[in-house]
Amino acid sequence: MANYQDLSNEALQQKYNTLQDAYEAIASQQLQLDMSRGKPCTEQLDLSQPMLDIITSSSTVKTENGTDARNYGVLDGIPEAKAFFASILDVEPKQVIVGGNSSLTLMHDSIVQFLLHGVSEEATPWIKQDNVKFLCPSPGYDRHFTICEALGIEMIPVAMTPEGPDMEEVEKLVAADPQIKGIWCVPKYSNPDGFTYSDAVVDRLAGMQTAADDFRIFWDNAYIVHHLTEEPDELKNIMRAAAAAGNPDRVMEFTSTSKVTFPGSGVAALASSEKNITFYKKHLSVQSIGSDKLNQMRHVAFLKDKDTLSAHMKKHAGIIAPKFQTVLTILAEKLGGKGIADWTNPKGGYFISLNTMEGCAKDVVELAKKAGVTLTGAGATYPYGKDPYDRNIRIAPTLPPTEELKKAIDVLCLCVEMVSINRLLQR
Ligand code: PMP
User: Fold this and answer.
1) Claim: this prediction has a pTM higher than 0.90
2) Does the beta carbon of 196 sit less than 6 angstroms from any atom of ligand 1?
3) pLDDT tens for residues 21-48?
4) Radius of gyration, alpha carbons of the chain
5) Cα–ligand 1 centroid distance for 131 (angstroms)
């Protein structure tokens, strides 16, 4: 395969003309393919359909300790749900709050609490201090960045590497600036790169010196059990590492069953030190009398324990791993060796990260849109929607049926080639 960087302008122009013909042929088909969000496909949702039969009109609706799950109460989750999440997260049940249907809500509410009340009884609310700042390993999850933007928190991007955030940069920044109060982390199969943090990165995050004594790590373990291969990545337990390093209250960990059962109708959980959990519950008690216990019961009865959950996740992988493979095969076939793009090959999670040549991603997404393929907006994976290199495109392979996925990735590759050649012609 010819590297486009080495081709003459004449050769590039010729290629461009051929690609443009192909593009026009596809554009005339008026496709309507949406690859913008990481949603499970129908077959994945069907895997959890039997869960809906668990609580029927003739079911017992008492929790393990005899509470009637139909009534108010139990602020921090039914005991069996706390035990279930504790075993998944490898913490003690007393370190867990089981919430409602969304971990994003728990993250948002944690930050609001810290802004309004501080991180503990002794601490000063963040809003009573100067400008609050967060470190944002980028590319990252756009909704984390939206929370910061909505709450007036200044975002400082730091580079992501296959091992996790660039820790030289992180350590330097947090040591120097007491207004840096937090960092967003998707430590396993990160969104969008699919990277898992190395043990060394986990240890450095757990132990680093921070100028702020009310600094918190937002450990969004959304893809903790979402493996695509038989050799899952291992992630070191940061809660234990932080406690061992003398920072037991540093980490707020989040997860949910959104991409295990039903997004929007799953169960979310927060884990932290006992001290943080007690403080969180105090404020939670003002906003809620308790979350949906019937849904918690249903989930525990269906997912049961680590082994049952793992078997269930293998069924997910059976459906979506071939879709990831389809994307990777097309990318390699169409873009491999051309010197115009690279991409990640994740062992889990929901995304593949595609990096074009600098300055091309926006144009690629726009061109694809005109041909009927909607991708996640270029820039969305960076704070303020601004990718400084205009290079990163998030591919979400799970939702479309394979035939549609193939078409969409064909169009994407075509657009990457056309935009890249255009750039090269302007050299
Ligand atoms: N965190 C990450 C990293 C995600 O990718 C997603 C879903 N796309 C969420 C959180 C949302 O989780 P929930 O449905 O529990 O709010």
Assistant:
1) yes
2) no
3) 999 999 999 899 998 889 999 999 999 9
4) 23
5) 27
